[in-house]
Amino acid sequence: MALKLWHCAGSRSIRPLWTLEEMGLDYDIEVMPFPPRFLHPGYTEINPIGTVPFFTDDAAGPDAVVEMTESAGISQYLVDKYGPTDLAVLPHEHDYGAYLNWLHRSDATLTFPQTLVLRYTILEPEENRLPKVAEDYSKWFHSRLRSLETATADNEFLCADRFTIADVAVGFALYLAEFLRLSEGFKPNTMAYYQRLKARAGFQRAIKYDRTLPITE
Predict the structure, then answer these.
(1) Parallel/antiparallel/unpaired status of strands 66-68 and 54-57
(2) pLDDT tens digit string along 128-141?
(3) Domain range for residue 139?
(4) Is 73 in the same domain as 106?
(5) Could you tell me if 80 and 120 lie in one domain?
(6) CA end-to-end span of the chain, whole Å?
(7) Is the pTM above the cut of 0.85?
(8) Are residues 82 and 104 in the same domain?
């Protein structure tokens, strides 16, 4: 199998998994308990930093295996390597800059504060939890959603007048927000946009492993 994804329910690996499903690519998947660095024997031998996702592409042979750990980057690799596909926005298109900006914003600006909320409300032992940190970063997350509320005021999707991996990347951040009960702060445009994303068959297939409590790295 050329493409393989190591995945945990509810984790950032939903981004490349959703991309694989939208593209209809053949892939192998290994579903692991969270956190895999402790609960999936041998995982740190494959991925020394122990994070999720981990992705490989051995199509070029055993001496040229591609290994990746960044979820939005894997999605971009898939559309660039295995396209052409409308999921990508190309450099000659007007919205190429916006496309790249949303891809990077999805993690650096949106998912980052959520990880602090997750850690200090769920992952840490009760005695180590910090409600004030969680509250502050929840506010940070909601303030950063202003750009999304504006972008979806008159547009069905984020860029290029079509669904792209920018929507996949940002859509996961909204999915994680729902799990963290931060979606209660979504404004109308953002909520309507999220509902459009959740209705996609590709999204439904990507979250089919999320039958247990979703946890993210």
Answers:
(1) antiparallel
(2) 999 999 999 999 99
(3) 96-204
(4) no
(5) no
(6) 26
(7) yes
(8) no
